[in-house]
Amino acid sequence: MATSVDAPVAVIGGGVTGAAVAHALACRGVAAVVLEAEEELALGASGTNSGILHTAFDSIPGELETRLILRSSALREHWLADARLPVIRCGATLRPHGEAEARTVASLAAQARANGVAVELRDDGALEVPGEAVTDPVAYTLALAATAAAAGADIRTGARVAAIRRAGAWLALDLERGGAVACRAAVNCAGLFADEVARMAGDNSFGVYPRKGEFFVFDPPPGPPLDRILLPVPTKRTKGVLVFPAVDGRIVAGPTAYDQEDKTDWTVRGEATDEVLAKARRMLPQLEGVQPVSCYAGLRPAGRGGANYVIGSSTACPELVNVAAIRSTGLSASLGIGEHVVGILSRLGIEIGPYRTLPAITAPAPQLPWWARTALYRAKAPA
Question: What separation in angstroms does the CA of 293 have from each of 36, 218, 241, 243, 269?
Fold first, then answer.
């Protein structure tokens, strides 16, 4: 049985959500321990998304997800400037095709205004969203973690949690490679495996399944550079295939939205080529005849039964705070999620100090572009 507390709070998962929680705690004087199962941070959904920083213009007013994205937007500008992270403030355009899509775009404009997001509905029916931006999601995650570590957080990789048990008044997290971490509370930011972590504490209240998003990367074609995010008109199920400039000068198109059960299958399906390229070329005709130089797949942790943004103290184990089913908007909402979780932990009795601004630490950039990093890691990983 554990005899001492290693940290007041243990954060399970080192993606952007876990890093943001550790950062938010560090801003309040709480030095957390972050336990990441992989050998590096941000090798899951956080390193395989679009890198787009959304404004919540198309989010449902009043929902928790919307509130957290909006709060992140308010927190993010100072953070981006202080951390000197790469960002393209290009804005986005939705261009409808046909009357039905025009009605959808008009309703999105009204929804954006209800959320307090600036948009412009043009006379031709297109919607301009000037606040949308693109960053490097891996650099964003690593900078959050590095800043938290400089303020006292203990960031551990290769630290997969194998069991959760009580150790007196505390929790003990047994690690797969041996040893345990004792804490007064744990925050479950385990992404695709958040439901499995919750079950270790007797919590079967939610499930997570992987929704595969496949992307294709292009060298910029001849002609004027792409200077904005091109968004399709969304459906109830998916935001659809978009085309956007990446921070390294390339163009990315995607994602698909393929539901699967295997949480370890990061391959790009053969069918994805047809599902993405025709739509991308319709949006950006300069891509016609241009072949992608690379592709990658991300597995978004989607909630079963449409239950996304499952954030709160577990009813089975109150000292475990679940931050689960954080789908594709996790990067955009991460700073707000961190702040929100600090409030939950305070109500659980964790001593939270006054807010302090931390000097941002820009972590060394990975040698590979963010969109190539996870694919190479998965290819090298033992079967």
Answer: 31, 5, 18, 15, 16
